[in-house]
Each structure stands twice: as C-alpha cells, then as structure tokens.
Amino acid sequence: MENRTELEKLGEFGLIDKLSQSVKKYHDSTIKGIGDDAAVIDVGDKFMLVTTDTLVENIHFNLMYTPLMHLGYKAAIVNFSDIYAMNGDVRQIVVSIAVSNRFSLEAIEEIYAGINKACELYQVDLVGGDTSSTLSGLVITITAIGEVAKNEITYRSGGKENELLVVTGNLGAAFMGLQILEREKEVYKENPAMQPELEGVDYILERQLKPEARKDIVHFLHTLGVKPTSMIDISDGLASELLHLCKAGDLGCVIYDEKIPVDQETFNAAREFNLDPSTCALNGGEDYELLFSIKQTDYDKIKDSPHMKVIGHYVDKAAGASIIARDNTSLPLQAQGWNHFS
Ligand code: ADP
Ligand code: MG
C-alpha cells in the first residue's frame, strides 16, 4: 500500500507548508513567494503584490442567507485585505467564477454588481477573469494585484522583541453575525412561517455579510508617519494570525485579554449564545481587520486613534505566545481558527 497522509491531520497550513517545499524559484524578481499575505514581485521602482482567495458555496457562504450582491462584494474585499496587509494599495483584480445551470444571468449579474461596488469604493479595476461550470455549487476566485513603494512594504516577519502589537477596529463580530444567521436558518428550516429575529444585530450581520478592508488604516498610518514593522490581516481569528506573525518573525508574544477590542453587539450576542466574547474575538474568523506591530517610539502617534488598540507586545521566541487572562493568569495562545479538512 502506498503512503497516504490524511489532509485532516495536516491541516490547511500543514498542507501549504508541504506544497511549498517542492516549489522552486527561477527569477530574481520574485522577492517573496509563498508565506505572506501576498506575493511580492520586483517590477522596477515599485513592488507588485499578488494574492488570491476562493469562496466556495456551502463552505464559505450559504445562499440561504447570503445576498448575491453581498457575496460579490465580500469576494473582492477578502482579497483587498491581503494587499493592505502588505502596506500596499490594490490596483486591479481578475475574477473567476464557476457556476451550474442552477444560476441565471440575473444571479451572476447580482454578484458582479457587488464586485463592481467594491471596485468603485476601493478604486480598483476589474481587468479579466475566467468563466467555468460546476455540477452544482458556486465558486468565486478573485486575484488581486496591488503595489507598494519598496521602502513601505511590510512583511509578516519584520517584528522585533518589545515592539507593540496593535489591532484595528474590533474582533469577533463577523463570527457572531454568522452564528445569528445559522440560528435563523435552522429556525426557518423547522418552520418557514417564522419571521427571523434580527433585531439589534445589524452591525454584526453587516460585519459577516458585507465586510470592509482597512485601506483607511494603511493611509492613516502613512499620514501619521508610522510604518508597521510586521503586519497580517485577521481572516482566521486573532490567535491564529498572532501565531503566524510570531512564526514568521521568530518571536513570541504576550497579549492581554482585557485589551482585545470587542463591540457591544458582539458581546451581547456572545452572551446570548453562551460563548465567551474573548474566545469569539480570538478564534472567530472573517474580521478583515489588521494586526501589526509598531516601534514603542511610535506609540504616541497612534495612541489617540479610536481605530487602533495596543493589545500586547512581542517577546523572545523562547517565551512562546501567551495571553494574560482577566484574572492575571497566563495561558498559552492556541489557534483554533479554520481547519478546512476537519
Ligand atoms: P491568507 O489567509 O492571507 O489569504 P493563506 O493562509 O491562504 O493566506 O495562505 C498563506 C500563504 O500560502 C500565502 O502566501 C499563499 O499565497 C500561499 N498558498 C496558499 N495556498 C497555496 C497553494 N495551494 N499553492 C501555493 N501557495 C499557496
Ligand atoms: Mg491574509
């Protein structure tokens, strides 16, 4: 019998690690390949950034509660977010869709209306793509191309001991929005006559269905004269992304539970579901906020911004990654995040 390794055991990141081992590099213009939020390519006086993300029906979205326009919008945003995570700006996208004859022209046009809206708001050109078919589901893959001045690029790996770890916005909202939508879906399946209970959850639903990418933060930091030393976008949950930054930078970190920004609506919803709000912020995905490090000397420049919060700092690798709980106990930081294969 041949060797057979179960993907479940490897996990998504284990699989990527394995695949990257067989990848060779032939061009000096390839500055950074696999392993950051976007690939980095030297195109002369600037770096070009390239990233791609796929959304698969019934894995990443459910059409029972996802409007097609929102889906298109989100498919674009999740890609923009990876370009901003390199401290760059998005210029173009290409869009590939695979559909079955379950979908009409009007349905696909709705998806494109959402993509076009995102392109308008973020000033991005849609320059091509591919159209293909599936036996049943819908798959959207978008590739975003961006650029960044060579001295502005920020990698996951650039952090140093004692630098401050900062997150933008608030976390866990998209995850709680998803819990609400899933709950209402189940209620509807049981009894289609029931009206959905969606009062007081507008914000978290929007965070799930129509997320934004933090272009504003990249520009704001630029104006403040702050260059993040390392950066990643929060797509799989804060804990998972922190571990990526630590691994890339050969560092450890300490973060403080009480400093993690959680919106009131997220907090209330978490309580309603008997979940710990901090756990939702640490392990819930799809926030598309930015997590970055800054030099301590830059603290004064960002400390008054309501959009950024210092949650901890980098420490020596040997100290590992830990979170200080509200009762002051220190716990090892663990990523639950997404495992596509479990
Ligand atoms: P993100 O969450 O920022 O989109 P991913 O976790 O999807 O990043 O990917 C991490 C890194 O692995 C990226 O550099 C990405 O380009 C690369 N990668 C992911 N899947 C593959 C693959 N199938 N083949 C080659 N590289 C991949
Ligand atoms: Mg990313």
Topology record:
Layout: H1 7-21, E1 30-32, E2 39-42, E3 46-56, H2 68-84, E4 89-99, H3 105-122, E5 125-133, E6 139-149, E7 164-168, H4 173-190, H5 202-209, H6 215-224, E8 230-234, H7 238-249, E9 251-256, H8 264-272, H9 277-283, E10 289-294, H10 299-302, E11 308-316, E12 321-324, E13 330-332
Parallel strand pairs: 4-5, 9-12
Antiparallel strand pairs: 1-2, 2-3, 3-6, 4-6, 7-10, 7-11, 8-10, 9-11, 12-13
This protein binds adenosine-5'-diphosphate (ADP) and magnesium ion.
Structural commentary:
There is one protein chain. With 342 residues, this protein is α+β, with helices and mostly antiparallel strands. It folds into two domains: 7-149, 60s Ribosomal Protein L30, Chain: A (2-Layer Sandwich); 164-332, PurM-like C-terminal domain (Phosphoribosyl-aminoimidazole Synthetase, Chain A, domain 2, Alpha-Beta Complex). 35% of the residues lie in helices and 25% in strands. The two termini are 24 Å apart. Adenosine-5'-diphosphate (ADP) is lined by residues 16, 19, 34-37, 53, 82, 235.
